[in-house]
Design a protein that fits this description.
Strand order of the largest sheet: 9-10-8-7-6-5-4-1-11
CATH class of the largest domain: Alpha Beta
Distance between the termini: 32 Å
CATH architecture of the largest domain: Alpha-Beta Barrel
Strand content: 15-25%
Number of strands: 17
Helix content: 40-55%
Radius of gyration: 21 Å
Number of helices: 15
Number of domains: 2
Shape: globular
């Protein structure tokens, strides 16, 4: 039986980024302490039937977890360790905004047992950071990385975004080379998704910013693939590259469609058969737990057809693809027995390739992943 993964959601930010659709809120500093108490209560109450369950990764995301004091983060992480069997070798990640940490904070974070830091850099161009409404500068991003090294972090991820309004190919490549010059163990490179209702989408709609160019974004991705390979990073997931041995174990658990536990406002949990999610608003989340109520907002049962489809959709994000042997062991069906039509069509379109080991996206398929995923989702909802 695989060890599980724990996700802790911290929904607080200094300011909301212009592109953000995450469950995050600015201006709620007064709620930090009560929210952490609620998190601790949820963790404690959830462990009743799973005392001693093994945990291979703990991921604290947001929002911006590092707007909390290290004392508050310590309380949450300690509660996880008291109620779950967090393995000695567990990957413990905290997301950080470069504008919210200093050398002392990072040293304290490392002393808490955090093994991996994920820095939301997004760009090394100050103009792009301004468009994204980030609260840090490019200089702060570089300084935060160097301070993390001094604090003892030997596994650091940098997030970057490409395909930004007005971003040129040369600016994107400069971002990438600046990141590589720092030498992180992991890089997450995300194409901008312009989501309706965000301030960035509104600015584009109003003509204040040029719309993103999807063809240029595709070129940016392809250039990044070549540069990252030359730099010695393993391309292990559509948007993620790592030095050998530094793949994000927590996210691999998601991509392999394995169970996980989520705590906090809006957090999701999956036990292999049911998916459950919490109320979104931090105030309501705190109120419910203070009253001894369940913070869940809803749940759904994942039937076998949906589980097979989700296993394909998530697994095909991995560059190694979906293993024939693992799929058959899990479902008692071969890949072709389950998805012969979809696989055949996608191979003919040049979006999938397969062999005795399994199926995986082609380079073109990685650019058109959503089209591939829709084919498998349609099977489950038909």
């Amino acid at each position: 039986m695989h060890a599980t993964a724990i996700y802790l959601h911290i929904p607080f930010c200094i300011a909301r980024c212009s592109y953000c659709t995450f469950n995050s809120y600015a201006g709620l500093g007064h709620l930090h302490d009560a929210y952490v108490r609620a998190l601790q209560t949820e963790i404690e109450s959830s462990a009743g039937g799973a005392e001693g369950e093994r945990v291979a990764s703990v991921y604290t995301g947001g929002g911006t977890p590092t707007v909390l004091t290290t004392e508050l983060l310590q309380r949450v992480l300690r509660t996880c360790g008291e109620h779950y069997r967090v393995l000695p070798e567990a990957e413990v990640t905290v997301e950080a905004n470069p504008g919210t940490v200093d050398a002392s904070y990072l040293r304290r974070l490392r002393a808490l047992g955090v093994t991996r830091l994920s820095l939301g850099v997004q760009s090394f161009q100050d103009r792009m950071l301004s468009i994204l409404a980030r609260v840090h500068t490019s200089r702060q991003a570089r300084e935060a990385f160097l301070m993390a090294r001094s604090a003892g972090f030997t596994s650091v991820n940098l997030d970057l975004i490409y395909g930004l309004p007005g971003q040129s190919l040369s600016q994107w490549l400069d971002d990438l080379y600046q990141a590589l010059d720092l030498g992180p163990e992991h890089l997450s490179l995300y194409g901008l998704s312009l989501e309706e209702g965000t301030s960035l989408a509104n600015s584009v709609s109003a003509g204040e910013l040029p719309p993103p160019d999807p063809d240029l974004a595709a070129t940016m991705y392809e250039e990044a693939e070549e540069i990252m390979e030359t730099a010695g990073y393993v391309h292990y997931e559509i948007s993620n590259w790592a030095r050998a041995g530094h793949e994000c174990q927590h996210n691999l658990n998601y991509w392999l469609n394995r169970p996980y536990l989520g705590f906090g406002a809006g957090a999701h949990s999956f036990d292999g058969q049911r998916r459950r999610w919490n109320v979104l608003r931090p105030e309501e989340y705190v109120r419910r737990l203070e009253r001894g109520e369940n913070p869940a907002a809803g749940q759904e049962t994942i039937d076998p057809a949906m589980e097979r489809s989700e296993t394909m959709i998530l697994g095909l994000r991995l560059c190694r693809g979906v293993s024939s042997e693992e799929f058959e062991r899990r479902f008692g069906l071969s890949l072709l027995e389950a998805f012969a039509d979809q696989i055949g069509d996608l191979v003919r379109l040049g979006l999938l390739e397969g062999d005795d080991e399994g199926v995986r996206l082609t380079p073109r398929g990685r650019l058109l992943g959503n089209e591939v995923f829709e084919r498998f989702l349609a099977e489950a909802v038909a």
